[in-house]
UniProtKB/TrEMBL annotation:
Keyword Membrane: no
Matches recorded under PROSITE patterns: ANK_REP_REGION, ANK_REPEAT
InterPro entries associated with the record: Ankyrin_rpt, Ankyrin_rpt-contain_sf, Dendritic_Spine_Reg/Scaffold
Species for this entry: Haptolina ericina
Protein name (Swiss-Prot/TrEMBL): Uncharacterized protein
Key words, A-Z: ANK repeat, Repeat
Renumbered ranges of ANK repeats: 51-73
Length: 481
């Protein structure tokens, strides 16, 4: 069993190099088996070749997943019996596993490396540096492994996750118990205008230029304009009602229709800023429309009576899908949600969800229950004020960030790079999740190379589903080379 060839390789090590699991099992039985020959075989786990390789290291370097799994099982201390010896009981140490982990990572053998990492202990309780992590990406199974491998088993002091619906893990994927989840609402102009204050900071344009990121700007959403046919459906349904044939409700329908048609035809060059947009919307609505953006108040902006507005909101309709099937839905879901978006149709270009969640994460624990629009605006402006003053004391500042390269991810990265520069002794490490290569989206490769050039570690996740959004981020946020 312990014979070695000219290179110092034992039969067990050679079997591991070639990934021969059956041979490995024969040469190295598990701890439950006893007997002198068996214990001698298990003692080969500790014998190194002239190159300093143990069987575990060799299997890890070759990416032999099942062999590694079996060797780790063999490494459990054997039960004391007449054949036990100090050599067997101490046939390996943690450094063997650490070296094997390095080899697996170098070879890109993620699943093997993850097994080894787990062998070293719970990734979140190992001694060493404590990391504060902000993660705004899709929580896939593969992403959980890559996070732990990236941190190399170091202890996480705080893990805060941006968790809009798209990022939520699929069934069967468990998040660490310590994770804190943020899902801050970002609807309406008041919230986006407050968030924009966080990008009006001295020195931020210079950081943005260095990273090749365009600062967020206002613009008209052609996508929302294209959804106004859904609001026209509400108008059509309202006109069928007896209480909308005359009086205030009939007038309200006319005002709503004028707004919808004018918005659908509006050009970006007709609005030169958020104040101009406010004046434009106000020409169709009653005063105070920015404070009445919840579905239950939305129609009151045009003068509908409360009773009629409520009944219209709850009206059921048939929604015909592209495949020809029909489903029941309400005008609230079909129409009012797009009318609500139309009020913010001139807004910050792109999504700000991850930025809003980052701001709340920097402020403290996730809010419970979900905050109102007014509460979101207050918190965002408190953090913006601290950033403007350079007063970072009391703010949670991550040491590590994981993102998936969408528009709001890149803006969050920009903000954290700025904060880390102003925070003494702080340095931000970044891991980026991208979908696998796709000929339909060659832009993914450009994004990967650009992020790597800024010392971001990039990995490709087979379960990531945001190629189109990454392409959009390249077009709208990353400045041309």
């Amino acid at each position: 069993m312990q014979l070695q060839n000219i290179n110092g390789d034992t039969p067990l090590l050679i079997a591991c190099i070639h990934g021969h699991e059956a041979v490995v099992r024969t040469l190295c039985p598990t701890a439950e088996t006893s007997g002198p020959s068996v214990q001698a075989g298990r003692s080969c786990l500790a014998i190194k070749s002239h190159l300093g390789r143990t069987p575990l290291m060799a299997a890890a370097e070759m990416g032999a997943k099942e062999v590694v799994r079996y060797l780790l099982e063999c490494m459990r201390p054997p039960a004391k019996n007449e054949y036990s010896s100090d050599l067997v009981a101490n046939s390996y140490d943690d450094m063997d596993v650490v070296e094997a982990l390095k080899l697996a990572r170098k070879g890109g053998h993620v699943s093997v490396a993850y097994q080894l990492l787990r062998k070293l202990g719970d990734c979140h309780t190992l001694s060493g540096s404590a990391f504060a992590v902000y993660a705004c990406h899709q929580q896939t199974f593969y992403a959980q492994q890559r996070r732990d491998l990236w941190l190399e088993g170091k202890r996480i002091s705080c893990l805060r996750l941006s968790m809009p619906p798209f990022n939520k893990p699929p069934p069967g994927v468990l998040l660490p118990d310590m994770s804190e989840q943020y899902e801050v609402p970002v609807f309406g102009l008041r919230i986006s205008r407050a968030i924009m204050e966080c990008f009006d900071l001295d020195g931020l344009p210079q950081v943005a230029q260095e990273l090749g990121i365009t600062l967020p700007r206002y613009g008209l959403s052609g996508f929302i304009q294209g959804k106004m046919f859904k609001v026209r459906r509400l108008i059509s349904e309202a006109r069928k009602r007896d209480d909308c044939q005359s009086g205030v409700n009939a007038e309200a329908i006319s005002r709503l229709e004028r707004f919808v048609e004018a918005f659908a035809a509006l050009r970006t060059d007709e609005i030169d800023g958020p104040d101009a947009w406010h004046r434009w919307v106000s020409s169709f609505t009653a005063d105070g429309w920015m404070e009445k953006q919840e579905f239950s108040h939305l129609l009151s902006n045009f003068g509908f009576s409360p009773e009629t507005a409520k009944e219209i909101q709850l009206t059921e309709i048939d929604d015909r899908w592209d495949d020809g099937s029909t489903v029941k839905t309400t005008l609230e879901q079909y129409s009012l949600r797009w009318l609500s978006k139309a009020f913010a149709g001139y807004n910050v270009v792109g999504c700000l969800t991850d930025v809003a969640n980052l701001i709340f994460a920097m402020k403290g624990k996730p809010p419970t229950p979900k905050p109102t629009e007014e509460e979101v605006v207050i918190i965002v402006r408190e953090v913006a004020q601290k950033l403007r003053e350079g007063e970072f004391k009391g703010l949670w500042i991550p040491t590590h960030m994981i993102h998936d390269a969408e528009t709001d991810d890149l803006l969050s990265w920009l903000l954290l790079k700025y904060v880390n520069r102003g925070s003494a002794g702080s340095s931000l490490q970044v891991l980026v999740q991208l979908p696998i290569a796709d000929p339909k989206y060659p832009e993914l490769e450009e994004v990967a190379e650009r992020l790597k050039s800024f010392d971001c570690e990039v990995y490709r996740d087979p379960s990531a589903r945001n190629a189109a959004a990454v392409k959009l981020a390249l077009q709208s946020v990353l400045t041309p080379k």
